Amino acid sequence: MPGLVWFVIRRLFSALLVMLALSLAVYLVFYAIPTDPALLACGKPCTPDRLEQARHFMQLDQSTMQQYLNFLKGIVAGRSYGEGAAVLHCDAPCFGYSFPLARPVSTLIADRFPVTASIALGAAVLWLVIGVSLGVLAALNRGRLLDRLAVGFALIGVSTPSFLFGLLAILVFGFWLNMVPVNGYVPLTESPVDWAWHLVTPWLVLAVLQASSYIRLTRAQMLEELNLDHITTARAKGAGERRVVVTHGLRGALVPIITLFGLDLGGLLGGAILTEKVFSMQGLGDLLIDSVGNLDVAVVVGVTLFAAFLVILANLVVDIVHGALDPRVSHG
Amino acid sequence: MSSSVAGVVSPTRQALRRVRRDRSARFGLVLVVVLIVVAAASPLLVKLSGQDAFTYHIDLLDPVRGNAPRGSFGGVSAEHWFGVEPLTGRDLFSIVVLGLRTSLVIAIVVTLVTTVIGTLLGITAAYVGGWFDAVLSRFLDFLFGFPQLVFMIALGIIVPTSVPRPLLLIGVLSFFGWAGLARLIRAQARSLVTREFVEAARSVGSSGWWVITRELLPNLLGPVLVIATLAIPGYIGAEAALSFLGVGVPPPTPSLGRSISDSIVWVYTGTDPWFMVFPGIALFTAVLGFTLLGDGVRDAFDVRLRRTH
Asked: Where is the ABC transmembrane type-1 domain positioned along the sequence (chain B) (predicted)?
């Protein structure tokens, strides 16, 4: 499929360009910070001399553009701060260095990312499964009790903020029924069972709420799709109902669902950040909020860019899947 | 006089009639009216209850239970209608109604700002076309894929504390909010641009501004109203989410999101879940009311808002 290969290459290239433009924009915006981060590092009492030293050490005395170029260079070749005995190395790929936390930004992100990723990935899988299957069921049982329940459920889902729903779930399942742990994160490598057990509630909370828009969409798409001629043809040729619904109906409904999924990816990350706070898990959101409080620009820029990178990457994947499912996309 | 002549009743009036007939839209409308009245009259209501949102009532707390309120339902009494906040003993009713006002004011201001910007830019892009349309569309794509919440949190670092946070919230939510509206309006306007009446207006030498404001805009009022109504619950939720994360409305200004965030530890331990329940119900009702009304308005105007990509 040479068409698809070219499509993938084109997409990769434009994703890279967007990432570069974005990183420059984010850098310029965040280095306009009104407070001097060197002031914090300088300590008290802070003499002008020491402040100048701190600024030089943190490379804040260079122009913003120069700092941005250093940043790009650091990703490829690593960078070091200061010279002589006090030198600090940040190995490639270096996404900046957090002076308040005395760690490279990439290490900080790598420490926290598994928490946020565990929440987001599990929730995404669950919400697609719940949303699509309930949507199909609702469409097949149009107007009956199951359909009404699914539509009503979808309405409550869009009206409940995720953090509120999470707290309710903690109250009911964690406290009253005492079924699940109420907070805390256990790394997957430590104990896969405990990992999943601690994540069940956050996953369900995020998935159930997000699933509602997928129920609505799948239901509408399936109703439309099942009225098309090719379905009637399939039925006339004697295909079983299951085959008609899954192979012929759902396939056509899948493209808009994937489009919606692509649009929701940015929100998925946001949802995971809110959820990790509800369940007291120290993920990326926690790192970001703390860094804003600490005036730790390097971490704020790093996390923002990383989040943008994830969304761009995920969109790329969605686009490619889209192109593979629907040839009109990759040839358009 | 006969009123059966078709076309006498304006489309807007027909739509309003349909809203009135739609049961869930009517319920939404009632909720919205009640919420707005409560929010607008909140200072009065607070005065009526004889309390305020800032006075500590330590005597109402039980030190044995970690300063949770004494009594049932979080200390509900004739003086404190929703009980009191644990740890401080501040009146929860005052906090909830004033917090509701904060939420609604921010959401409505953001809706107004984004509606004006999004409508004008969306129509202009559809009408002018060319490079303006291309650049705007690219920019919208970019805003859409952006992890907005992350950026909203991060912005806290560069905006000086001298800028009032509610103002910052309105700015940030507006910056990301107009994109959705602009895209939908652009799609709607594009189908109008090629119609005869627009062609006619152009052929008699009307200026671009005239065509946009006098020809296109009146024909798009329905969709604009629909999209704006549907957007409000999103902003209520977003404001609450930011305040929940501690980067929204700062204390001591009452905020539903922050109260819910403060309640986390009381929910974990089960010592005072009512602290979450009252602000939670207020927030849920606000989002539900505007969602139901928005759905009703959309059905009434029969606007198909396809997500196009």
From this structure: 100-294
